[in-house]
Amino acid sequence: MPQAQARSVLPVVLLGCGGVGRHLLRHIVSCRPLHANQGVAIRVVGVADSSSLLVADDIRASGLDDALLSDLCAAKSAGSPLSSLLSRGHCQVFNKPEAMGKVIDAATMLGRTTGLVLVDCSATNDTVAVLTDAVNRGCCVVLANKKPLTCHYEDYEKLTSHFRQIRFESTVGAGLPVIASVTRIIASGDPISRIVGSLSGTLGYVMSELEDGKRFSEVVKTAKSLGYTEPSIKDILLT
After folding, report:
1. Is the dihedral angle over the CA atoms 55, 56, 57, 60 positive or is it negative?
2. 3-state secondary structure of 166
3. Please, what sign has the CA dihedral across residues 226, 125, 239, 216?
4. pLDDT for 190-216, tens place per residue?
5. CB 205 within 8 Å of CB 233
6. pTM for this entry
7. Is the peptide bond before 97 cis (omega within 30 degrees of 0)?
8. Nearest alpha carbon to residue 70 among 39, 90, 44
9. What is the pLDDT of residue 4?
């Protein structure tokens, strides 16, 4: 039975293809049947790592195909650069600093027409400028990276000035809908007098293991191997 044509096509540029970014790409690919039933097609048009950007040849018409995305995940897991995928064709690679300029070009081209979503799965605050620029060009931003929200307050205000265009639920709460729940309570008119809890999934894991008598160094090492921590442990333990 042929699949129905998507009613909505959502172009996406992914910033960061470490553990979280690769998991997201695999999830997008594996959920294609679900998206089709919902009338939505998520079109990944570009993927950036810390040094370069892999982008589809014609982002208006097509994205990076699923086979290429799967190979990309395998290549990055093996420590290979994005440029190793150029032989697949129908894509281009740009190195920094040109790479971020190409992201802005995509934002300019698609932001106010088809729309474009920038998903930040990196672990750096170096993305603040490009995210802010993209929002100002009509794009939407989704953050798994919490660092842009901890930048200078002036930069934070600029980034969140179009609040309907930015979402950051997955930056806190170990995947629980903490921010959405609080937002809905406030929107309903109910006051919130106090919030108590450990909203860091990483610290929740660490403290639970310490309560069982395990050594701190052992617990932190295990948490990192399980993918519970930021790439730099200091970002969790010292903030």
Report:
1. negative
2. strand
3. positive
4. 999 998 877 777 888 898 999 999 999
5. no
6. 0.84
7. yes
8. 44
9. 58
